[in-house]
Write a structure and sequence with these properties.
With about 475 residues, the chain is mainly alpha-helical. The protein has 25 helices and no strands. Helix 13 runs parallel beside helix 15.
Length: about 475
Amino acid sequence: MRRCEHCEAALSQHNPGSVCGACAVARRDLPSSTTFKGPADVLVHEDVVAALRDWNWSAALRAISAADGVTQMRMSEATGLTQSTISRLMNGRVPTPTIQTIRSLCDGLGIPRGLAGLAAKAGPARARSKEDATDRRRFLSGVGASAAASVWSAFGERPDRMRSADAERELDTLHSAVPRLQQLSDEYGGTDALCTLAVRLAGRADEVVQSRLASYELTQQAQSLAGQFSMMAGWLHLDGGDQTVARIHWQHALFQAQLANDLETEVFALSSLSNQATFSLSRAPEGLLLAQRATAVASGWASPRLRSLLLIREAAAWAARHEPAQFDRLQRQAANLLPDRPADDDPEWLNFYDRAEYDGLRALSYGLLGDAARSQSLYRDMIDRIPLHLQRNRLLYTTLLARSMVSSGDVVGAAEVLTPHLASVAATGSRRARHHIRAVARAARASRTSRGVRFADQTCQAGLDSETA
């Protein structure tokens, strides 16, 4: 890579400290202690990766500095950030950097953007302004984009110096966005626009947290809202097919909830992480510990419905550990606690959990235990009982039933189950559901039956046959 004229002159005078950040990343003729060679150079350190997964930039930068002997000045040169910004990041005075700051850290220090929850970097010729413009175009395009834009339009430009009155107005707008974003999530699933919207809303809440003039009560409210939006961002990214980014957002939400002393959001984060560890990451012991921790945090104040959810989450982790007796004991306790109707003391985020969802989690658990027949029977019974407004859940469980049928050898039956839902899945952003449909379509085409091949062709016609669909 060619260096700029300023840097060529600096190097010819043996003055590497004057090399600009962009060239500092690319240069190969300076001592290794003053450069960052790329992702492999950073990711070789487990403590760095662990800190990034916990969204702890202070720990990550301190670990990089300790491992490679890199000074704050060198980090400043590599990233283009000021040394004072690097210092405040390392000292924990900026717990939640802006997206622009995270971009600079990732690109300057060789950290893969995906590990920090950002989209992959485009080609080197792409200018920052062009990158930001593309981000905005992506936000305003695709499924659910106009609805997402309508939510964001309620927010004006943030004042450079936020007064208490500004913070109060901002919090009122953020509060009103919570149910609307949840409604859009249930309707559209993990579209790019909604994922971006959730992250932006979390960022606006964090801006109130960082406002020095806001009262303690306002700061705590804003911190709690940042946690709630991070939770939604995690579920949207999970539905959008990005397990790693979902996990990062949930870990960040857990951190925010603990700072805000928001026990409901803390339990939500622990429960979500448990669910992911159990069903998606094959980390059953971790899923069990997370579920048990959620139960401990909820002790003394949780409603019967919430206690039921936490018990079925723990039961699922026991199923993943192939402990049917423990699973059976806990799932029966969960059933006994689950009321027929919502109660006033239920957390707002718990509206998805009812008898149908309870049976869906049991179906997933029986699948882990190898009882496909019982799993499929539960899926068939519960899908029609899912409320119509939870469109994403109805489609997801339908595709899970089809995947289970394929595993049992009933490929044609799986195709029959999915055919009426292809258009609905195509109209959502649920890449999880699309992934399951593609798997069934591949099995159907491989079966070489007329019905199977026809279903695979219908999947193509619906635009569901590629990973980018």
